[in-house]
Amino acid sequence: MPLLCMSKPLDSEKGVVAVRFVEIEAEEAGQRVDNYLLRLCKGVPKSHIYRAIRSGQVRVNKGRVSSEYRLEAGDVLRVPPMRLPQADAPRPVPPAVFPIVFEDRDILVIDKPEGVAVHGGSGVSFGVIEQLRAARPEERVLELAHRLDRDTSGLLVIAKSRKALVRLHDMFREGVVRKYYQALVTGDWVNDRQHLREPLLRWMTASGERRVRVDPEGKPSHTIVNLLKRFGRYSLVEADLRTGRTHQIRVHLANAGFPLVGDDKYGSDEVREHFSRLGFKRMFLHAGRVEMAHPVSGELLELEAPLPAECLAIMKILEKAE
């Protein structure tokens, strides 16, 4: 495994490298400092990098920064000593190939399976992005443009150039990327079209688990819900995201009284167990459609990923039960 954080030879006994100072070039500007370090220091555990940032060992222009700081051209980044795995250690990330919906020199859009995290961390050693990098070592840039929950399937946009990455981050932040999700909810959805605008606040449980709730102190959030099909006690809806908050669809629908089938955080245990007995053992949330301008060419892209086979199968069971 390459050891990329070195300015001096590696201490083979301790596996630690010396301090390094890196000047940020123009094409590298716009990246978050944590993402830059994860790419620079391949093989260093993610927890070590975040610990170094929090403790002030990572500095930009001699000052402390947060993990969300976006690097600018000319910034001088202090990279502290990092503990690396031994050079003969087995490769920790298995390469993987995912269904490709669209690809050119600047972006890659895949159909992410349910149950796969988009990146390592929070108890997950690796995710989609790490597996893609392992499968495509020749790619200079492979970076997530946005996130999907581990239990959500569907369209995931990945940047293959620095120019595309910076523009995509701006586009998602500005809300000009239209994302449509299909969700099976508990309950008979009434309105053909309904706007949900409750503010959402992130919080942590006593065990350190991240959660979200509707709260007046939260960030403005907007989901448009369109009815697609009724199945008696359940409904298939389309969620049109106008903001991109953590767990937004799941919390908005649960707060409205229509929790997602299979949602282990905001849904019903009884419903989840019922569907598990029917052979459906996941959360029914699928990022099925994205409409966006190409971040470099400006061309309009309308991309779709069909519902997974297990989602189609459970819908047939519900149709027969009506």
Task: Describe this protein's structure.
21% of the residues lie in helices and 26% in strands. It has 322 residues and is α+β, with helices and mostly antiparallel strands. The strands form 3 sheets. Strands 5, 6, 7, 8, 9, 10, 13, 14, 15 and 16 form a 10-stranded mixed sheet that branches. Strand 15 (285-293) and strand 16 (300-304) form a beta hairpin. The model is unreliable at 1-16 (pLDDT under 50).
Q: Name the helicity range.
A: 10-25%
Largest sheet: 10 strands, mixed
Name the overall outline. globular
State the end-to-end CA separation. Answer: 56 Å
Proportion in β-strands:
25-35%
Give unreliable regions as ranges. Answer: 1-16
Brief characterization of the structure:
This protein is α+β, with helices and mostly antiparallel strands.
List the helices and strands and how they pair.
Elements: E1 20-23, H1 33-40, H2 46-54, E2 59-60, E3 63-64, E4 76-79, E5 100-103, E6 107-112, H3 128-135, E7 143-144, E8 153-159, H4 162-174, E9 178-186, E10 193-196, E11 200-204, E12 210-214, E13 223-231, E14 234-241, H5 248-255, H6 269-277, E15 285-293, E16 300-304, H7 309-321
Characteristics:
322 residues, four-stranded antiparallel sheet, disordered N terminus, globular, alpha+beta, single chain, ten-stranded mixed sheet, 16 strands
